[in-house]
Amino acid sequence: MPNLKSFLKDGEVESYRNVEVSFVPGKKAIMTIYEGESMSAVGVDGMEEKEKIVLSDYKTKEEMHALMIEKGFQLKSEEELEAMKIRKQKEAAEEAERKAKRKEEMRIKREMKQAQKKLEEEEKEKAREEMEGKGEEGEGVADIEKEQTIDQGNKVENEELCCAAADRAQLWSEVRLNKMRKEFRDIFRSTCTSDA
After folding, report:
1. Residues 150, 151, 156, 157: is their CA dihedral positive or negative?
2. What angle do helix axes 61-70 and 2-9 make, rounded to 10 degrees?
3. Of these four, 37, 88, 131, 150, which has the most CB atoms within 10 Å of its CB?
4. Is-contact 15 75, C-beta < 8 A?
5. What are the pLDDT tens digits along the chain (196 aa)?
6. Helix %, strand %, coil % of the chain (to 5)
7. For residues 74 and 78, what is the distance between their CA atoms, to the nearest angstrom?
8. Phi, psi of 17 (to 5 degrees)
9. Could you give the CA distance from residue 151 to residue 146 in angstroms, rounded to a whole number?
10. Pairing state of beta strands 48-54 and 30-35?
């Protein structure tokens, strides 16, 4: 199998005219021969399947090259081979660039997510501190209502009032967080468009 893998992946099979390789991981290497006018830029559309050959039946590269010639495939000229080599190098460079760009985008997203999480935690802490601070100064609605309820001795009502005040604080915090999320999205978009 190492000979077959090398024959297919190292481009030896593509040194023949009208040969296109499509790798399907986990499947047997099968050469399908089509008959018709010619291969289009889209592939084998409009061509008729003539024969299928299991390439793993051939043990050496010499046998594989003999098969190609036996089936009527012609070797490409030196110019065609050089053009193919340049095209493959260009495709490899483009793929490496796409991978690097995806990796950078993922890094930026990860950092933005971490920064957003940190800001959310800071905002929650700040809201909590503000609510506690207002209570100490006697200005907090939750504490005033809490004192009135305790004076009346109604524990259930006290809990409901505290929950209502906490809901107001959470709502206020969520509004601020949504505003910050929008600002982060705008910064992220402007960073991505300026890099492109």
Report:
1. negative
2. 50
3. 131
4. yes
5. 678 888 877 778 888 888 888 778 888 888 888 887 655 544 556 678 888 888 888 888 888 889 888 988 888 888 988 888 898 889 889 999 999 999 999 999 898 889 888 888 888 888 888 877 765 544 444 554 555 445 555 444 445 555 555 666 666 677 777 777 777 777 777 766 655 5
6. 70, 10, 20
7. 13
8. -70, 150
9. 9
10. antiparallel
Among 5, 2, 8, residue whose Cα is nearest residue 20: 8
* Structure-token match 């050469």, residue found: 31
Dist CA 170 CA 163 (whole Å): 10
Residue 13: count other Cβ atoms within 10 Å of its Cβ.
22
As to burial, measured by CB atoms within 10 angstroms (0-12 exposed, 13-18 middle, 19+ buried), residue 8 is middle
